[in-house]
Specification:
heterodimer; A: 522 residues; mainly alpha; B: 779 residues; two-stranded antiparallel sheet; 34 helices; 72% helix; 4% strand
């Protein structure tokens, strides 16, 4: 069976929609009709992409660890560059996440965005293209173009439709990510110069000199760590979230933060295995600091968005822990945690958006007693809150726990420290929920707010069901992820065989036992 | 059957929770009650099928796999129901008490505007608890563990407009999470050690890792000890043992049925269940067992001291619960798991009874909870009064009430352990038994006796609760009355009419009264037919051991039949199962044990089979049946003494307690202020966490990271830009110069990078001759 070039369709369809939006014009006085058409066009465009993505998902061969739906077209043949896209078990879910969240964002902005609707929708559609492209790209240059390109619409979304301090926030966001990206560009060029290839699958099977790996690893790390974000380069995130419009926060937390983790899995681990292992203690330390530090900071926030932003930092800490535990549970847990966090944190920002649209404040103390006048809101908010806390039966638990299990195998100390996040996570989320939803109704305006509208339900209820579904039947995800994760790990371990052998010789002990000891002894 | 027993509450929760508005309060109440009653009957049927199976000599437990859950490499967890003796006992307790509480709540919450939601939460809790006890792997257990935590959180904070209720709910969840933190690490450690989290693999070969060491936090430690201590941390949190107990008294903010169901009968016993479930691991971790003993004994004692001084009727019972849980834990600590489970079962009945009775009092007193404002209402609510007496007698351990059997066997087991810690636990338990009786009768006297202290309009309102609230109390009271002697043999009785040789030495050393456990068993079972025989039998026991063996077996058979008869009456709807069980047990008994006529079928060996594992050297229950008489009677004596003291203090001479309190100044203050745990924790953890958070935020993020990072960078670049702007002179040659420097820099860097080969080759060349000696492969 000949497959249509489905990935390219998904990547370019939103751009086509964006172009079509630019030609929607109206006479003076028809602004409302124009806006309506723009909204509908972008919504249906993004739903079309979603339909294609589901088609791709259904046809995805879950037994294979190879890249699927591959398209390869020579692009700049002189330099060996090509347009090369494909998905494997790791990226397929990130693509899905991106295409699910885009219509959600468009719906979430339906009534809350009133200025420059056309430009806003264009920005989101282009953003969608770039996100899908990032996760599908199998050529380093192509990847870089998409990865960097994402910055621009996001920068505009924060800078134009953001809150009062949007300029500061958007520049902080831009500079931080740009600084990392520039270093990544240098690394990509160096990789090209060293190996003569920009093809990601090829690079994944190239063995590089250890010293060289270290430098490249650090450059990649600078970029991915900022995107994650890891402590101490996380301070752009709270500002960006606070100033961004609701939909901007949703995409930022839901997809953009995942690019860092995806980068580690796509570049650092397979291409630079020895350096990854060399720097693992650094990453684990930073992750544990992130979990504890960000959780404590979240505890004292009065701004709902800031609180959730800091909680994201903590949750991403579990992701990096899992990845750099180099165990199957850790890596699968990290991927699952990213997907789950993509849904949960996005939904939490939407929940904040719901009350923000009504009262125009994010101050936790201005709310209270919403359980009484907004029971449906209280219910869905509760589900996402519990997901964020990592209650078993929600998707948040599976990823967090698997990542911790993997970490435990690598190092009990890091696992024990990270597990304190279970307690702290419960503390700040319950505090938020209690102050907003429970308690007496202090403020008349908060008590007069209306419950979820049909549109809000349409967005939030399916997400709540997803959170529970993936908490109860996570194997539908892990089945597809496992082959790729296993092959990644096998590749990683094979690349250590000579190194392990080397060490074993120095210790004058057989290699197998030495490795075993290293595992259990840490 | 097991599906029905576990999932019907879930279905009820979903229907009542999601469609509460459509089906109305009545609908919610009906569907949840019906579902839980159905679950209760199903679990009783399971009890007959698996434990009281006619073929009692063999193990009938099984595992029913439902679906896959989490799978990642060798880390595999399924949704499955493990139906064995331990889980069935728990299921029966949970479902029966839950059914009573459900029905009671219909009456108790009849004026609450959200009563439909309340019923839904109760069903959710029941489901989570059932998932916990039927788990076949650690992850599902953790699911249930956290699930009951969530339900508890929702129910404590049910009146969510109340500040104190919200605070208590949050505290309960977070303190429990501290325990869960330990449990989660325990699960990871088990996975690291066993390579599996399935009970089939972990519990199958006890002692397989007896001498294994593992790395933990950088130390090399005995693996099973660490694992057991981590699991125990979870148990400490859930079961409100000393250290993580502060949430339990606060949890009384919830509606009273919640306190009865969750914070007395079921959820708080999850820790006991956990330790009993992992007996095959704890048995090989003596250090962990010692820790369990000490925690249990201290909790029993400390909680009882606090219980004596409180005035809130529910808090007194809450501290009493904590104290009784302490008993269960030190029983676990001396390897008397069966005794702990026995007390768990009897305690569930009489403590739920006491709580619901207290609820009935509060209901009658127009929501008054302070005992100082009660008194003189015994004639107005006689049913409640009588039922509370039954609960109190059971709690204080007065025969023939249930608590007598279970508490005594625990204390006997602690004494029989004959270790320093066992004796410590024994004496702590005796002291707590005295205080238990004291505060229980203090509660009874202050609440029901004396002159009325409430306002007149309240007193005029005092009324007996409706039938729907009293009827569940009667069922629980039946349990509090009968569960002790009916189940004594099965839970803790011995299968052998004479003691094993291991215990002979201990028993011989004791004063003469070493009657056979089998005989005591017979005595208890006799009671069903000839109640007055009970007290006489033990004295004449010794001579009759040899020749009565066969008779005993018959009697036991009869007793089992009697139990089944009883069950049959309850089970008219599903009588088929009971009928078959009955028919089979008769035939099974006839041919059951032809080779060993001394074998006692209604005994812990055949009751528990492999669900509980005890090493021979640790098995104190055999010896416990042969402890000296004074050990047997001391708890009863101190219990009666406690009642007498309460009578003196609160009926005969009401002025005495205040004097004692004044005289013992600081000690009383210590007890009254709950040993200052809350205050210390508040300063140590809560305030510190908030302070640290604020510090990290204001100083860490804003001053340090932002100051040095982006903001500092911005400041520097502004400065630099000022300098650089001078470069923008407009002269082309200057630009060209800058560009040239840049190009040179880039090219030289590239050249350096492109030609790494000679750079790398050089050391290789140098070391080229070396390989013969070093044999070091090129990295």
């Amino acid at each position: 069976m000949i497959m249509p070039p489905i990935l390219s369709i998904m990547i370019f369809l939103p751009v086509v929609c964006a172009l079509m939006i630019t030609i929607i014009r109206g006479e003076k006085g028809d602004e409302e009709i124009v806006e309506k058409n723009v909204k509908h066009l972008s919504l249906f465009g993004s739903l079309f992409v979603l339909a294609f993505a589901l088609f791709m998902y259904v046809n995805f061969d879950k037994t294979s660890a190879d890249f699927q739906f591959v398209e390869k077209i020579s692009w700049l043949s002189a330099a060996g560059l090509s347009y090369h896209v494909g998905v494997d078990g790791i990226s397929v879910y990130f693509v899905l996440l991106s295409v699910v969240l885009t219509p959600v964002c468009i719906l979430a902005s339906w009534n809350s965005v009133k200025t420059r609707v056309k430009e806003y929708m264009i920005a989101f559609l282009i953003l969608e293209s770039l996100m899908i492209g990032t996760f599908c790209a199998l050529d380093t240059v192509l990847f870089y173009v998409f990865f960097e390109g994402v910055l621009i619409p996001m920068f505009l979304i924060i800078g134009i439709w953001g809150g009062p301090r949007r300029i500061y926030a958007s520049f902080k966001f831009f500079l931080y990510t740009l600084l990392g990206s520039v270093l990544m560009l240098v690394a990509l060029i160096a990789l090209y110069v060293e190996t003569g290839s920009t093809d990601i699958p090829a690079l994944m099977h190239t063995t590089l000199d250890f010293e060289f790996q270290k430098w490249i690893w650090l450059a990649f790390f600078a970029s991915f760590a900022v995107k994650m974000p890891m402590w101490p380069v996380h301070t752009w995130l709270p500002d960006a979230h606070v100033e961004a419009p609701t939909a901007g926060s949703v995409i930022l937390a839901g997809v953009l933060l995942k690019m860092g983790g995806y980068g580690f899995l796509r570049f650092s681990l397979p291409m630079l295995p020895q350096a990854s292992m060399y720097f693992a203690p650094l990453v684990l330390t930073l992750s544990v600091i992130a979990i504890i530090y960000a959780s404590l900071v979240a505890l004292v926030q009065d701004d709902m968005k800031k609180l959730i932003a800091y909680s994201s930092v903590a949750h991403m800490g579990f992701v990096t822990l899992g990845i750099f535990s180099f165990t199957e549970q850790g890596i699968e847990g990290a991927i699952f945690q990213m997907l789950s966090h993509g849904i949960i944190s996005a939904a939490l920002f939407l929940c904040v958006g719901v009350v923000y649209d009504r009262l125009h404040t994010r101050d936790i103390n201005r709310y209270g007693g919403l359980a009484k006048n907004m029971p449906n809101y209280a219910l869905v908010f509760m589900i996402f809150m519990l997901g964020s806390v990592g209650l078993p039966g929600t998707s948040g638990f599976v990823g967090e726990f698997l990542a911790l299990v993997g970490t435990y195998k690598a190092s009990t100390t890091f696992a024990a420290l990270a597990a304190t996040g279970l307690v702290l996570g419960a503390a700040y989320m319950l505090l938020l929920y209690r102050k907003v939803v429970f308690g007496p109704q202090k403020n008349k305006d908060a008590a007069a707010m209306e419950d979820l509208t049909a549109m809000e339900k349409l967005v939030l209820v399916p997400m709540a069901l997803l959170v529970i579904y993936y908490g109860v039947f996570p194997s539908s995800v892990t089945d597809r992820v496992a082959p790729s994760a296993k092959s990644l790990l096998r590749h990683y371990e094979m690349s250590h065989e000579p190194l392990g052998y080397n060490e074993a010789r120095l210790d004058s002990a057989p290699a197998g036992i030495n490795k075993e000891e290293r595992r259990s002894g840490l | 059957m097991e599906i029905l027993a576990v999932f019907s509450p879930l279905v009820a929760f979903l229907i009542a929770g999601l469609f509460g508005k459509q089906i109305g309060h009545k609908g919610c109440q009906f569907i949840t009650c019906a579902a839980v009653i159905l679950a209760a009957f199903s679990s009783i049927v399971l009890f007959f099928n698996v434990i009281l199976n006619p073929d009692i000599l063999s193990d009938h437990s099984y595992v029913r796999v439902l679906s896959r859950w989490v799978e990642s490499g060798s880390f595999k967890a399924e949704w499955a129901l493990r139906i064995d003796q331990l889980s069935i006992v728990m299921m029966c307790v949970i479902n029966i008490v839950s059914a009573c509480v459900h029905v009671y709540s219909v009456g108790y919450m009849s004026h609450d505007p959200d009563r439909g939601r309340f019923m839904a939460y109760l069903s959710l809790f029941t489901f989570a608890m059932l998932m916990l006890v039927t788990a076949n792997n650690l992850l599902q257990l953790f699911f249930g563990w956290e699930g009951v935590g969530l339900a508890s959180y929702l129910l404590i904070g049910f009146w969510n407009q109340k500040h104190s209720a919200n605070a208590a709910a949050q505290k309960a969840f977070i303190v429990n999470r501290v325990g869960d933190f330990g449990l989660a690490l325990g699960i990871m450690a088990i996975f690291a050690l066993f390579g599996s989290i399935s009970f089939d693999d972990i519990l199958a070969n006890p002692g397989q890792h007896e001498h294994t060491m593992m790395g933990f936090l950088g130390f090399e430690v005995h693996a099973l000890t660490v694992i057991c201590l981590l699991l125990f941390t979870g148990a400490v949190g859930k079961s409100a043992q000393l250290g993580l107990h502060t949430w339990l008294p606060d949890a009384m903010e919830g509606p009273t049925p919640v306190s009865a169901l969750i914070h007395a009968a079921t959820m708080v016993t999850a820790g006991v269940f956990l330790v009993a479930r992992f007996s095959p691991l704890f048995e090989f971790a003596p250090v962990a067992l010692s820790v369990v003993t000490v925690f249990g004994a201290l909790t029993a004692f400390v909680a009882a001291t606090i219980g004596m001084t409180q005035y809130d009727i529910k808090r007194v019972i809450a501290y009493s619960t904590m104290s009784q849980l302490g008993y269960m834990f030190f029983a676990l600590g001396v390897s008397a798991y069966a005794a702990a489970m026995f007390h768990l079962m009897t305690h569930a009945f009489f403590k739920a009874l006491l709580f619901l009775g207290a609820g009935s009092v509060i209901h009658a007193m127009s929501d008054e909870q302070d005992m100082r404002n009660m008194g003189g209402i015994k004639d107005k609510i006689p049913f409640t009064y009588a039922l509370m007496w039954i609960g109190a007698l059971a709690l204080a351990g007065i025969p023939p009430f249930a608590g007598y059997y279970s508490k005594d066997i625990i204390l006997e087991a602690a004494w029989a352990d004959q270790s320093g810690l066992g004796l410590f636990a024994f004496w702590m338990g005796i002291a707590a038994a005295f205080m238990t009786a004291f505060y229980t009768w203090r509660l009874l006297f202050m609440t029901f006796h004396g002159a009325p202290r409430a306002k007149k309009q309240v007193m005029d309102h005092v009324h007996e609760s409706p039938f729907i609230m009293i009827s569940p109390l009667i069922i629980l009271a039946t349990g509090a009355l009968m569960a002790g002697y009916v189940f004594y043999g099965g839970f803790v009785g011995s299968a052998y009419s004479h003691h094993g040789e291991v215990h002979a030495a201990i028993t011989d050393g004791m004063h003469g009264a070493s009657q056979s456990s089998g005989h005591k068993e017979a005595a208890h079972e006799d009671q069903a037919e000839e109640p007055e025989a009970e007290e006489k039998k033990p004295e004449t026991g010794l001579e009759k051991i040899e020749d009565s063996a066969k008779k005993i077996e018959e009697k036991v058979g009869k007793a089992v039949e009697a139990v089944i008869e009883e069950g049959k009456e309850n089970l008219k709807e599903i009588g088929q199962a009971g009928e078959t069980a009955h028919a089979l047990i008769t035939s099974g008994n006839k041919g059951g044990s032809p080779h060993d006529p001394g074998l006692n079928l209604w005994s812990r060996q055949f009751f528990w089979h492999n669900a509980i594992y005890v090493r021979d050297q640790n098995d104190v229950l055999e010896a416990a049946h042969g402890v000296p008489a004074w050990v047997k009677y001391l708890p009863l004596v101190v219990g009666l003494l406690g009642i007498a003291m309460a009578y003196v203090g609160y009926v005969a001479r009401p002025d005495i307690p205040a004097k004692i309190a004044a005289a013992s100044g600081p000690v009383y203050k210590l007890f009254f202020n709950k040993w200052y745990f809350d205050q210390i924790y508040n300063v140590l953890f809560v305030k510190t966490a908030f302070r640290a958070g604020r510090f990290f935020w204001k100083f860490g993020d804003r001053e340090f990271i932002d100051g040095l990072g982006p903001d500092g960078f911005a400041w520097m670049s502004r400065k630099a830009a000022g300098g650089l702007s001078r470069f923008q002179s407009g002269f082309v040659y200057q630009y060209a110069f800058v560009m040239m420097i840049a190009v040179v820099a880039m090219v030289s860097w590239l050249v350096f990078r492109i030609e790494p080969a000679p750079v790398n080759a050089a050391p290789a060349a140098v070391s080229a001759p070396a390989p013969q000696e070093q044999e070091e492969p090129q990295p």
